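Course assignment 3, question 2. Fill in each field.
Student: A.L.
Task: Predict the tertiary structure for the chain below.
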Amino acid sequence: MHRTKEMRWFFKRDREPIKSWFNSLALVSNEIRTDFYLRMENEDLGVKLRDGNIEIKQRIGPRGSDSINSNIWGYCDSFDKWSFDCKQKNPLLSKIVGHEYEEWIPVEKRRKVALLTKEDGEIIVRPWEEEVSFGCQVEYAEIFIEKEKWFTFALEWFGTECLKLDSESISDIVGDTRLNIRLSRSYTNFLMNYNLGQRNKLLPLA
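Answer field:
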């Protein structure tokens, strides 16, 4: 089990400054995969199947809100997260991946991921796969739900201390991007609204 703090936004229009920052990095990880999310009625709990692992995350404490600069505001969620290896042959998992259960929502992801940490007082970018004691994972992804395209941007802090992002680092990543708090949702909250027929409420905000 490990604890993280996350800010995430969903939107329909590509944010070019963020994408350009990722494209400028030699260390960025580009990943294509499909995760399967269990349909939930409680947004405090998320369950997904990813690469043969079942991952569970539970929101801890009340939801907060914060800004990373004057143009970007969002909700902050703290999560406890668990991962269970289920890669051995399992008929149930095979059926989930085979789209045989409507309760599991497939989300195709084309992710760009980088890792920020601090060394000698300076914030640096490291490969996503590298193990560090603390840092912030930066993610920008093009996702598809029922063949409909969305984008998501996320910051996820982890480790022995909370990495404070300075204004220069934030400006490098987001440029003049504007994201308001109405676009900020956890994956569970976003999928709950999408699959409860609230999609039209999401679209005007994106």
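Instructor remarks: Residues 187-202 form the longest helix (16 residues). DSSP finds four helices and nine strands in the chain.
Grade: pending
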